Predict the 3D structure of the following.
Amino acid sequence: MSTAQEIFEHYGKVYPAGTTIFREGDPGEEMFIIQSGQVKIAKHTSTGEKTLVILSEGDFFGEMAVIDNEPRSASAIAHVDTKLIVLNQQVFESTMQTNAHIVKKILRNMSSRLREANRQIATLMLKDHNRRVASTLLLLVHKHGRNTENGFVMDISLTPAELADMVGLAQDMNKVKDILGKLEKAKIIRMDGAQIVIVSPDNLEKFIKYLEMKEEFEL
């Protein structure tokens, strides 16, 4: 039996797609490491559930509530069938005290999340919906894109509905579909069934810069 299998035997749990791992406001008694699958982190707002990020294999989450003993700041849902390593507070604290490498990794991860949250907030504040959608796609392809001969495929599920949720336009799906239609016509993206594939991240970036200049010069 491999080390990964042994760890899963002791600490592993399986969560079918759609299963709520924890809810916003729950006490934070465990942290989680994704062995396989994807987890959606979401927050409730006045307009409904808002997807903050989709995490994938190797990512971990839930550590903040364990560290500060505060309630969960967001909900976690299995986006697809997912295997998690679940560490309770005692195991987590013991690991933190004896493994400096883990401490550094958690600090780097938290720093990275803060930067990503700042970028996401800046994107959501954009009034131009075209820029908001395009900028979110660029952030996602840099984090989750996998280069193939047919374009950059996301390692996470990314449908138009999921994208609309991420950019705060879940109530205006037609607008998101119109924007995706423009990008597809310009051969910047293409649709592979329900999934969005980025054909050219470089052209996507150029499109964003064009929109920025258009707004700056009020063209």
